Amino acid sequence: MPAAAVHSAPQNVPSARVQAATEDSPIVRWSLIAISVSFMALFVLIPLAAIFAEGLRKGWDTYLASFTDSHCLAAVRLTLLVTVIAVPLNLVFGLAASWAIAKFDFRGKSLLVTLIDLPFAVSPVVSGFIYMLVFGIQGWFGSWLADHGIQVMFAVPGIVLATIFVTFPFVAREVIPLMQEQGSEEEQAAITLGASGWQTFFRITLPNVKWAVLYGVILSNARAMGEFGAVSVVSGHIRGRTNTLPLHVEVLYNEYNFVAAFAVASLLALLALVTLGLKTLVESKLHSH
Amino acid sequence: MTSISRPRVLPGFSLTLGYTVLYLSLIVLVPLAALFIKAAGLGWSEFWQAATSPRVLASYRLTFGTALAAAVINSIFGFIVAWTLVRYQFPGRKLLDAIVDLPFALPTAVSGIALTAVYSQNGWLGQYLEPLGVKVAFTPLGIIVAMTFIGLPFVVRTVQPALEDLEREAEEAAASLGASRWQTILWVIAPSVVPALLTGFALSLARGIGEYGSVVFISGNMPMRTEITSLLIISKLEQYDYAGAAAVAVMMLLVSFAMLLLINLIQRYAARRYQGVL
Amino acid sequence: MSIEVEHISKSFGTFKALDDVSLRINAGELVALLGPSGSGKTTLLRVMAGLETPDPHPQASVNFHDEDVSSRSVGQRQVGFVFQHYALFRHMTVFENVAFGLRVRPRRERLPAEQIKARVNQLLSLVQLQQFANRYPSQLSGGQRQRVALARALAVEPKVLLLDEPFGALDAKVREELRQWLRTLHEQMHVTTVLVTHDQEEALEVADRVVVMNNGRIEQYGTPDEVFHHARTQFVMEFLGQVNVFQGRVHRGKATAGPLCIDYPAYDGAEERLANVYLRPHDFAIRRSTGGEPALQAIIVRINAAGALARLTLRAGDGSAILAELPLEELRELDLHENESVFLCPKKARVFLSGQEANETTAAFNGKVQGRISG
C-alpha cells in the first residue's frame, strides 16, 4: 500500500514515512511482479495466444471451415455425448460418497477418502490401459463381450469409461470437506422436524453445498471434454467414430493440417477460458459463504 | 472413529456407502487390480526384465529427470508468483490470478501443440532461441517446458493459501523484536510455507511423471533420447506387448503411490505441528 | 521511559480511526486504553509501536523519553509488543520463540549462545513455563501461549511494553489470573506499559491510569477512581459500569426527571434545557414508603441475591427498566419480594445538559428536604 504522506506537506512534518513492518521495498516489489508476469507470459500467455493466432493464420474463412468438416462435427458430438454420460454419473457418486463420509463415522473412512483420490495419481495412459486389460480382446471379459457382439474397447463405451475414471474424484473431493465442515446439526434438526431423508438431503444439505458441487462439476466437465491420454489409449482413433475433439486435434496436427488443428484447439481453449471464468465466479460464491 | 453399532440419526448410510464402495470398485479398484494381476502373470524375472530393459530405463531417467527439473523451476517461480499474487496490488493481478489455472483447464493436447508452436525452431520464441544455440522442441528441454507448464498451478495453488494464512502479526512481532526484513522472511515466513511448498513440489513432480498429452507433441519421441515412460507404454501397446506394458505401468503406479504417500505425510506433519496456533 | 504522542490522526480510507489525539504517559506507569471496538485504541497502540504511520500533520509526533521516535521503524523503537492472538512463530519451540529477538541482533551486539540460553531460561521461569521450553505453540493452552508472547517481548529488554488486548481471547478465569499476574510482574519490572482492552473491569483493576476512548478521541484520562466516579462525559458515564438514565429538564438551578427533582446549581438560567440524569444502581435507596421525599415508584421484577450485593430489576410506571443494588442485609430487613411495589429514592445523581459533555456537576440528595446540596 502506497504511503499516505506522499503529497507535499509543510516543512517540519516528521520524517518521511517509516516503511511498514510487513512491506517490501518498491524495488523488490516491482522486480518480483516483473518476474511473475514474465514467467506467466512465457509459459502460459504466449502459448495461449499462439493457439488463436495459428488457427487464424489463413483467415476467418479457413478458420470457420475447420468446424464444418464432418469429422469435426462428429468429434464434437462424441465429446458432448461422453461428457453428458460421465459427468452426471460422477456427480451422483460424488454426492453419495460425500453423504456417507461427511455424515457418518465408520471404520476405514480415511482409506476410502484416499482411494477416491487415487485416479488423480494414475498417469492418463495407465488409466486407459487398465480398461484394456479388463474389456480388451485379451482382457478378462474380452472373449465374453466378443461372443455377445458388444464392443467396449476402441468404441464409445471404452471412451466413456476412461473419461469417468479420470474425472472420478472431482465432485467428491470438493464436496466432502465442505460437508464435513458444516457438520450435521442442520440435518438432525430437519429430521427432528419430521423431514424424510430425501427431503433433508434436497432441502438442507444440497443447498448448503451447491457451490462446491457446481465447482466440482465445472472441473470434471473441463477434464471430460479435454482428456487426451486415457482416451487416446482406448479410442482406436477411428475418424468420425471414436475421435473426441482432443483426438481430432492430434489427427489434424499429425497430418500437418496445422490451421485446422489450431482452429479446433482454439475451440477447446475457449472452453478452458469459459471454465476459468465460471470457476472464478463460483470460487467467489464459495468463499462468501 | 466411533463404533458402527451406535444408532444413527440420519438415514441413508448403507445406501450411500454401499453405492460408493461398489462404484469405486467397478471403476477404479477392479481395473487397477487387473493391471497388477497382468504384471504378476509375467513372473518375477520376466517382470524385472520388462520393467528394466535399457530403453525403459532410459525413459525412466528422462521422465524423472525432466519432471524433477520442472518441479524445481515451478517451486521457485511458482513461489514468486504466489507471493506476488498474495502480497502486492498491481494492475492485472486478478487476471494473472485467474490465468494460473489455465494449464489445468486447457486440454493437454492443446497445450502440447501450442507449446510446440511457440518453442519449435521457427516458432514464436523458438526462432530467437535457435541462433543462441538453444533448442527447445524435440529435446529434453522441450519436455521440461511442457512439464513446467502443466505443473505450475499445483505449486501456486498450494503455496498461495499458506501465504494467505500467514499472520501479519507474526511478521510484525518479528520486526518489533528487531529482526530485519530478510531475517523475518528467512526465519519466520519461509518455515511456515515450506510444507506447502514441498507439497506443491511433490504434486508438480507427480503430474510431470505421469504427463502425456502436453509432452508428446514437443518431445520428438526418439527412443532412448526423448521418449517418456507414458509414451513407451503406448508403443508397447501398439506392438500388443500388453504384459510388458503392464510391467512398466506398475512401476509408474508404484512411483505415483509413493508420491501420494509422501504428500500425505508432509501434510500430516504440517497439520500436527502447526494446527491450532492462531 | 515516558511516552508522549501529539496530534496523532490516522485514517483508513474514509474511516477516521484517530482524530488528533495527544497523550502523555508517565515513566513506569501501567496505562490502559479502554474503549468500545472501533474507538481507535488499538490503532493508537500500533502508532506508538511504529506498526502504523500516523497521517501527516505538522505537529504530529511520538516521543519516547522526550525524544522524537516518529521516524524510527518498529524494530528501532525497542518496544515489546504483545499481540491479541499471540502471533507466536508456530514452527519454533517456546524456547526458540523467546530467543528470537536475541538471535536476530547484529552479530556484534549479539550475546553469546550460553548467555542467550541463560536469559531465555530466566524469562521462562519468570512466566512459569520452564518445563515447556521444548514444546511447540500448538501444544500449549491459550494462557500459556500468551505468557510465551509476553516472555518473547520482554526478552529484548524493551523500554516500553505494549499489549494489544492480551487477554481478549482467553476465558474468564484465566483472564483474571493473568491480569493479577501482569500487575505483579509490572510492579517487579516497572517498565512503562500500555494495555489495550475493551474490558472495563480489566482496565479499572490493573491500570494506574485509564484512557477512555471513543470515536478516535480521548474522552477522559485519569485514575480508575477518577474515571469511574467523576466521569467527565456522558459517554464515560454510560460506558463504565451500569447506569440508569432519565431524560429530564433543567432550569433555575434545578433538574427534574419525572417525579425526581435534583439541585443543579451549574445552570440557573430561566430558559428550560434538556438534560440527562444518571444514577448508578447503588445510588438508589429503596423504601416501602416515600416519607415525603421525591421518589420513583416501581415494581420489583426480579431479585438476584447471588453476590455481596443484591441486584434488583424494577419496572417504573412508564414501563422503563431500572437497575438497583443494595446490601443483602438491607434486602432481608426490608423483606422485599418480586412483584412488590416500592419507592426508589435517589441518594446521588449526575446531570449532563444535552449536547454538552464536559461540565462536571454532581447533584446530590440529602435527607428529606429536597434540594439541599451535599458534596
Write the layout of secondary structure elements.
The complex is a heterotrimer of chains A (289), B (278) and C (375).
Chain A: H1 26-55, H2 59-68, H3 70-103, H4 109-121, H5 124-135, H6 142-147, H7 156-167, H8 170-182, H9 185-192, H10 197-226, H11 229-235, H12 245-254, H13 258-288
Helix pairs in contact in A: 1-13, 2-13, 3-7, 3-8, 3-10, 5-7, 5-11, 7-10, 7-11, 8-10, 9-10, 10-13, 12-13
Chain B: H1 13-40, H2 44-51, H3 54-87, H4 93-99, H5 102-105, H6 108-119, H7 126-129, H8 140-165, H9 168-176, H10 181-210, H11 213-219, H12 229-238, H13 242-274
Helix pairs in contact in B: 1-13, 2-13, 3-8, 3-10, 6-8, 6-11, 8-10, 8-11, 9-10, 10-13, 12-13
Chain C: E1 3-12, E2 15-25, E3 30-34, H1 41-49, E4 61-64, E5 67-68, E6 79-82, H2 94-103, H3 113-126, H4 142-155, E7 160-164, H5 172-189, E8 192-197, H6 200-206, E9 209-214, E10 217-222, H7 224-229, H8 234-239, E11 244-251, E12 254-257, E13 260-263, E14 273-279, E15 284-287, E16 296-304, E17 309-316, E18 321-327, H9 328-334, E19 341-346, E20 348-353, E21 362-364
Parallel strand pairs in C: 3-8, 3-9, 6-7, 7-8
Antiparallel strand pairs in C: 1-2, 1-4, 4-5, 9-10, 11-12, 11-14, 12-13, 14-20, 15-19, 16-17, 16-19, 17-18, 20-21
Helix pairs in contact in C: 2-3, 2-4, 3-4
Structure description:
The complex is a heterotrimer of chains A (about 290), B (about 280) and C (about 375). Chain A has 13 helices and no strands. Chain A is mostly helical. In chain A, helix 12 runs antiparallel to helix 13 (about 260-290). Chain A is globular and about 65 Å long. Chain B is an all-alpha fold. In chain B, about 75% of the residues lie in helices and about 0% in strands. In chain B, helix 2 crosses helix 13 (about 240-275), helix 6 runs parallel beside helix 11 (about 215-220) and helix 9 (about 170-175) runs antiparallel to helix 10. The longest helix of chain B has about 35 residues, at about 55-85. Chain B starts with 12 loop residues before the first helix and ends with a helix. Mean pLDDT of chain B is about 90; it is low at about 1-5. Chain C has about 375 residues and is an alpha+beta fold. Chain C contains nine helices and 21 strands. In chain C, the strands form four sheets. A six-stranded mixed β-sheet of chain C has the order 6-7-8-3-9-10, sandwiched between helices. A six-stranded antiparallel β-sheet of chain C has the order 13-12-11-14-20-21, with no helix packed on it. The longest helix of chain C is centred in the middle third of the chain and has 18 residues, at about 170-190. Chains in contact: A-B, A-C, B-C. Chains A and B meet through helix 1, helix 3, helix 4, helix 5 and helix 7 of A and helix 1, helix 3, helix 4, helix 5 and helix 6 of B.
